[in-house]
Design the sequence.
């Protein structure tokens, strides 16, 4: 499952320009490039307003269980759309050892009707 969180914040043009220049310098650095860039991303990604989250089924990636657990513990609602395969939601949560999330899972069944 791949997750994507959508977030927003307003940035002043001058603040962005300064940050962007720092990022360009970090990207060109020959020493500690990854650490410098990570630090800059952490700086710009603060105080965001979460506006949505989506996920797609995929081969289970590393740390997905940790991500889902942290989102749930932060009070963020998690929606799982499983299409026509009922029961997949419970298998995924039990596979990830996230039973406490499954207990709070709200199921919504959507039927596709062709006229």
Sequence:
């Amino acid at each position: 499952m791949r997750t994507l969180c959508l977030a927003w914040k307003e940035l002043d043009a001058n603040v962005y320009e300064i940050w962007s220049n720092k990022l360009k310098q970090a990207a060109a650095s020959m020493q500690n490039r990854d650490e410098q860039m990570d630090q800059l991303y952490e700086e710009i990604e603060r105080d965001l307003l979460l506006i949505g989250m989506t996920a797609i089924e995929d081969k289970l990636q590393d740390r997905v269980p940790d991500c889902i657990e942290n989102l749930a513990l932060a009070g963020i609602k998690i929606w799982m759309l499983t299409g026509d395969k009922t029961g997949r939601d419970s298998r995924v949560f039990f596979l990830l050892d996230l039973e406490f999330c499954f207990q709070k899972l709200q199921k919504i069944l959507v039927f596709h009707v062709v006229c």
The helical segments are 13-28, 33-44, 64-73, 88-95, 99-104.
